[in-house]
Write a structure and sequence with these properties.
Shape: globular
Low-confidence stretches: none
Structural class: alpha/beta
Number of strands: 8
Distance between the termini: 17 Å
Helix content: 40-55%
Bound molecules: adenosine monophosphate
Number of helices: 8
């Protein structure tokens, strides 16, 4: 039976980095909705324009779009479980994930929230660089790239939605929507809150402890 983990946190909390490390350690499928949606937004698919606009405004894409995206990636899963990175962000998505997992006689095993303050989010996101080619993320303060390019050789850019205005909107949406989901997870006794204003390895060790206990 699979081990399914949700990792949530405000923008810049390091959830992407931690999810990647978890996926490697336990051989899990890393489902990063933000990344998948950015890929669709920059493609020629019919949904691209609408998704791009929604993302620029810092709003959530519709539950219908999200279900299509998640349903598709879960289909090919041959790993030991899934890390849901950045989903569920509202109650509908929470029910969706539970339903998709229930179809396979599985459930959300751990619901981990990485916490950082608003000041820290703004500091981290305004210094974030993303690779145009592979999506790798760097930070001029905490994880500077060597030279001014990505490991893969790709060009590093500031994400369209990492402007101060978009960041503030995304934070507001995050707090409004996810508060409800977090309280649901708490009621189901699967919630673990972790302080994200510490070194990457320390946070990772805490998450591993939560998973292995
Ligand atoms: P992120 O990279 O996680 O900050 O996500 C970037 C943007 O993608 C968000 O501002 C949303 O517009 C969209 N997005 C990512 N994940 C979700 C989700 N689970 N539900 C709806 N929209 C999402």
């Amino acid at each position: 039976m699979g081990m399914n983990i949700v990792i949530l946190g405000p923008q810049g909390s390091g959830k992407g980095t931690q999810s990647e490390m978890l996926a490697n350690k336990y051989n899990l499928l890393h489902v990063e909705t933000g990344k998948i949606l950015r890929e669709i937004a920059s493609s020629n698919e019919p949904m691209a324009d609408e998704i791009r606009r929604t993302m620029l405004e810092g709003k959530l894409v519709s539950d219908v779009v999200l279900e299509a995206v998640i349903g598709q990636v879960m289909k090919d899963n041959r790993k030991n479980g899934i890390v849901f990175d950045g989903t569920p962000r509202n109650e509908g998505q929470y029910d969706l994930i539970k339903r998709l997992l229930k179809n396979r006689n599985e459930k959300i095993d751990r619901f981990i929230v990485i916490e950082i303050s608003e000041t820290e989010t703004i500091k981290r996101l305004t210094s974030r660089l993303t690779c145009k080619n592979c999506g790798n993320v760097y930070n001029t303060l905490t994880k500077p790239p060597t030279g001014n390019v990505c490991e893969c050789g790709g060009e590093l850019v500031v994400r369209d939605d990492d402007s101060l205005e978009s960041i503030k909107k995304r934070l507001q949406v995050y707090h409004e929507m996810t508060a409800k989901v977090i309280s649901l997870a708490k009621n189901e006794n699967i919630l673990y809150e972790i302080n994200g204003e510490r070194p990457i390895e320390e946070i990772f060790n805490d998450i591993v402890r939560v998973i292995e206990n």
